[in-house]
Amino acid sequence: MLVLDPLRQALSGEASSHQILNSNRISQDPRGTAQLPANDEVSSTTTTSYNIEGGNNQQIYVNEYPQYDPNLSYHGYDLSRDVSEYKFGADNGPNHQDVANRPIPPPRKSHSNQTSDDKVVNTKADRGQWTGRFDFFFSSLGYAVGLGAIWRFPYLCYRNGGGVFLIPYFIFLFLLGIPLFYLETSLGQFTSQGVVQCWRMAPIFKGLGISMSLISFFMIVYYAMLVGYSILYFVLSFRSKLEWATCGAWAGPNCTDDFSTFVMRCNYENTYKDPNGRCYTWTNQGLTQIGWWNIESRIQYRKPVLPSDDYFNNFILNKSQGIGYISTMEWPLVLSLLAAWVLVFACLCRGIKLSGKVVYFTSIFPYVILLILGIRGWTLPGCGRGIYFYMKPDLSRLADGRVWNDAANQIFFVLSVSYGGLITLSSYNKFNQKILGNTITVCLANILTSIFAGFVIFAYLGYLSYITGQDVENVVSEGPGLAFIVYPYAVTTLPAAPLWSMLFFLMLILLGLDSMFASVETIVAVITDQIHALRRYHTLITLIICISAFGLGLLLCTDAGIYWITFLDQFNSSYPAFTIGILECICIAYVYGSNNFRKDIKAMVGPKNMGVRVFRLFQICWMFITPIIILALIIFTSINFPALRLGNYNFPHWSYKLGWCLVALILSGTVFYALYAIIHFVLIDRNSYRVLINPEPQWGPLLEQNRKKVNYYHGGHKGALVSVIDRLKNRTLSRETLARSKSTDIDIADKEGSIFAQRPPSRVGSESAV
């Protein structure tokens, strides 16, 4: 072969640099032996025996094409560099060794447990990746199936009439939740980037990532406080008897722990039934009240309050009169909040490699505890009342806009769409990870967990209704603290109550930590993806975020903290999430193009994948159904905005103004970045407006080998909106050109006609005329 002549001279030190440059690319062994790589994935490799002076036959591996296989180990050779950068022959210096005594080792397959994708991620991108097969599944399951299913769903269902809440809930699940869940996981896996850089398909939409980071930040502020409540209850459970099982010094006047004497029959000797429901007995001093015989009258006079209700409001929270009444700092809550953030930092300080293993336990353990509590609750008398209230829909409540708003809000919250966590978690996937199966499984598991938790908590509500004689909807006070009232009372009905109390609150701690892991990692990924040099300081950035959220969460440790939790839960997760969701659909479906996105998914998972086959269903949702529904929700709830209240307390007007300021702050990331992009790229750099809505050159997979795969399928494309504009412009130019050509033809014809009219008659014509 021709390559052997310059190779022979290179080995003997006689070849000139000009001859080597004209040959194929070769690499050099660290001992000075020239060698070409073998087993190229594009071409076959020819192995030739060549007798080097003074030595035996050596096997020289000649690669006919200068490309390399990333799955091969080339003994440290850098095949991406030009051959002129290597020294051969006499230029090797004093350390040159005789190649005759040194056999040339052949290339060998890498025996590392990591794939080539893993190696490139760790060396070039320096970005983590899931190491286990089910790391992403359990992480996304734990992120989605958090306190939203156990804590938030029951109290929203209780507030909105029980079973009727499930009707809009399931409608929004299939029309909003699953399409957006699939969109975000596909986008994150395709780009392997955080919530800002993944929007390089349309740079003007990069601000969506900033808004997602802000909404995640404010969510973890009050989410950590809920975990802090659970930690405090967990510590207080290490006693022989639970304090909230009976009324104590912290109890109010209506606290009732013995419902056996709540009403009496009043048919004993020397007793008198008063028509008002009171029961009297005759004594020497006259009539003396000894109880009540009518349950309605008793409840109207003094509504019974569970010990767990008073314990939570009076002892744990020391609740004030309203959101503006802040007088004391509850130090047990401060320590509990600090413990929550210490746990979060301890699990995230080493990145996703540690948190990916923690979620295996934190995702499965809650189901065991819920099942145990459920079995106990379903055997209590009166549980059927609660389940009946839970399953029987009051269709008249469907006319209430708050039911629909809360259902859509809960879908966004419980599936964590528009919060950025799904994009971040899926960005650590391998490029060819199957997405649709995880999407369907996680969404259905999330919904089933919420429904299952509802069966558990409403069974105990039915039991409380039975022993107190009240209606199910009036048993306990509604609000975010429902889970910390009913569940603690539920464990007091179990034998060995302190043990089950510890296990239950450990479950709540794990559920909250699962959701906080992904939210904190989302914020960290935004910072490190923007400034790559900070990736080496991952631990420090995580610590700064935890300290900042802890400092802001101190407001929730005051005696007005529960009001601020209700405030953040209302304004942080409704309008911002809806707006981000509709902008995601617009960007994918219209600006970048849903057909282009289909090609990306096809290149990622293959043309035969079920996600590609049913893509048209998601395409219809992204283009029409999902944005129309979200827009209708925004308009309808803006017209009929539900009143913000906690139990019987109505929030003041200034809290609404502050809430809209919070909404504006979250969405300001999207607005301000769009303005920055217009000013910087169009006005200052004087680029065309196309750069705002057309994919950047860096758009696509993070790894180079995956970029080649995408280019193999469709060779790159421009945004759909840019294509439409170009077609309209070309059509307009074509019409103008056609009109211009027609006018030119008419002008030429007119000139020819005028010239013909001015031309004198010919001689033949004159003679003929004569």
The computed structural class is mainly alpha
Taken from the alpha-carbon principal axes, the silhouette is elongated
| Continuous helix count | 27
Major β-sheet, in short? 3 strands, antiparallel
CATH class of the domain at 134-248 and 307-363 and 399-445 and 477-641 and 655-675: Mainly Alpha
Total beta strand runs: 11
Shape-level CATH architecture of the domain at 134-248 and 307-363 and 399-445 and 477-641 and 655-675:
Up-down Bundle
Provide the low-confidence segments as ranges: 1-125, 762-770
Helix content: 55-70%
Average of pLDDT: 78
Strand content: 5-15%
User: How far apart are the first and last residues' alpha carbons, in Å?
Assistant: 93 Å
User: Order of strands side by side in the largest beta sheet?
Assistant: 7-8-9
- What is the CATH third-level topology name of the domain at 134-248 and 307-363 and 399-445 and 477-641 and 655-675? Amino acid/polyamine transporter I
Rg, rounded, reads: 36 Å
Detailed description of the structure:
By secondary structure, the chain is mainly alpha-helical. Among the domains are: 134-248 and 307-363 and 399-445 and 477-641 and 655-675, Up-down Bundle (Amino acid/polyamine transporter I), CATH 1.20.1740; 260-300, no CATH class. Helix content is 59%, strand content 5%. The chain contains 27 helices and eleven strands. The chain has helices at 4-12, 17-22, 116-125, 135-144, 147-159, 166-191, 207-236, 295-301, 307-316, 331-348, 352-377, 383-391, 401-415, 421-426, 436-468, 483-492, 497-530, 538-553, 561-571, 575-605, 610-613, 615-639, 653-684, 690-693, 704-714, 720-758, 763-769; strands at residues 27-28, 34-35, 45-51, 57-63, 72-73, 108-109, 271-273, 278-283, 286-292, 645-646, 649-650. The strands form five sheets. Strands 7-8-9 form a three-stranded antiparallel β-sheet. A two-stranded antiparallel sheet has the order 1-2.
